[in-house]
Amino acid sequence: MRGFKKRRVLPLLAVLLLQACGGGGGGGGAIQIDPSAVATTQPPPSPPSAGTACAALRGAKVDGAAIGLPTQGATVTEAALVPSAGQTGEHCMVKGRIASVSEGAQDIVFALALPTNWNGHAMHFGGGGFDGVVPDLVTTPLTSGASPLQRGYAIFAGDSGHQAPPTDPFHTAFASNGEMLRNYAGDALKKTRDAAMKLIGLRYGKAPAKTYFMGGSKGGHEGMQVMQKWPADYDGVVTYFPAYAYMPQMMTIQVATRALWGNGGVGFLDPKKLQALRTAELAACDALDGAADGIVGNLAACTFKPQSLRCKGGADAGDHCLSDAQIKTVETLQSRTEFSYAFKNGATGNPGFLTSTDYASVLGATATFPVPPNPLVLGALGALPDAFIRNAVLMDPLGLSIGLDGASPGSYLPRIQELSAVMDATSTNIEPFVARGGKWLLVHGTSDPLITFQGSVDYYNALLLKLGRPQVDAFLRFYQVPGYGHGTGHFNATGGIPVLDALEGWVEHDQAPGELVATDANPATAGRTRPLCIYPSWPKYNGSGDLNAAGSYRCATS
């Protein structure tokens, strides 16, 4: 019986199907099938070509409601497919504007580079100085190896909400407009990021799996802003020499400016005086790390005092020595500035620069303070506070900035504190970023002549005090680079540190980075390497081996 039932199954099903279709009647007619009722399988439509997908973004709009801070929305103004060139693959270069909301405020200009072969991740680039231009999205000096675009990242960045004239890198007129100032302080980061996420979704049909931020100097300040203010937006951050304590640092440099150019410039250090200072510092401290190589690695053991260069009698007696006024300038540069007031989050002081800092790259050659203002005369060390103080503090583009005492600013104190409340990224409340698994790589050179290395140490120590070393070690690596300045230096690590490899490994594969290797970019020593040590350790020569090879050094603390 079982065998019979099995043999009858298929014929019985056939009969039932015929009856259902009307073909089982006594008429014996053929089965009638309505072609429109027959389901057909069509191949899925081919995805649009990269050129078509890129062109489709032209004129695209992002509604203001999709952006986390007030705007009037974003509009794509250009979208062009860029063919492969060298190691950089084909990509769609998108440019657009985010409309401001207040009268007189300029729009935020932004750009995206959207690779045809997308790796599923996104990278936000920070700016530098007073911003005002969109950073280069194709290359970056902040990582060795393949660039983010070469790796397939979708890259985006903005100009921070104002457009600086190409010939004026110290353009700060934006600071008198409240919305433009807030954009520069950090709001433009959120607006640019949110607009970029919408456009990335339009191009690829999904959001990035991981989003990173990378920036140096002001861009480092911006990286710390995004961790503190918008922790859910980023999975990892790289900051080089971050100007996070923006107003304390600005006022510290202003105090140094007055020492250099005040009183008719009696304390000014011209290039020959700076060379005499550097020569004496190296003679006293260079070999303390075991290698006489023009780099002071063991700064903790360096006890050099500028008084050792005092001219006989204290008056200027030539290029080989320092007058009393010039010694006071060096002491001002290297000492902690104590303020008569508090900045945001209670800061009342800011550290000075370290011994062996080379100021020649950021200091002008004349002792006369220029009237009217002239950044080319001052150099970056003087031009940065001059430009910002005139436009943001004095609110007078032609004001005499050197008249302001950064330590005791008198009637300008309320404005300075108002700026601090907007600008400073000094909060240590970054637990939300840490809690969602965010990772941070901090890189700072000990010879930085614009943003003091010790400032990064102060922030790091504040995190240790608040969170404890185990939790800090779980999300932060702080790398110090002896001899590295502000993108320059006697050991120029620009483009020579594998920070993106380290960040990807940590975030995506849970491979916590240890000591890395830094490569010197200076033409005379190109290819020289050193261990990139985790603070507070530094590269100590082993006593034998090639002085220019990282393998001849170990990271030490004494």
Description:
- The structure is a single chain.
- The protein is globular and about 95 Å long.
- The chain is built from 13 helices and 16 strands.
- By secondary structure, the chain is of the alpha/beta class.
- β2 (74-82) and β3 (91-98) form a beta hairpin.
- The N and C termini lie far apart (93 Å).
- 46% of the residues are buried.
- α5 (246-261) packs antiparallel against α7 (324-334) and α5 crosses α8 (375-393).
Secondary structure elements and their pairing?
Elements: H1 2-20, H2 50-55, E1 61-62, E2 74-82, E3 91-98, E4 108-115, E5 121-125, E6 154-158, H3 178-204, E7 210-216, H4 218-229, E8 236-240, H5 246-261, H6 271-285, H7 324-334, E9 337-338, E10 349-350, H8 375-393, H9 413-423, H10 431-435, E11 439-445, H11 453-467, H12 469-473, E12 476-481, H13 499-509, E13 516-519, E14 529-534, E15 538-541, E16 553-556
Parallel strand pairs: 5-6, 5-7, 7-8, 8-11, 11-12
Antiparallel strand pairs: 1-2, 2-3, 3-4, 4-6, 9-10, 12-14, 13-14, 15-16
Strand order of the largest sheet: 1-2-3-4-6-5-7-8-11-12-14-13
* Helix percentage: 25-40%
| Tally of separate helices | 13
Structural category is alpha/beta
Task: Give unreliable regions as ranges.
Answer: 1-31
Count of distinct strands: 16
**General shape:** globular
Strand content: 15-25%
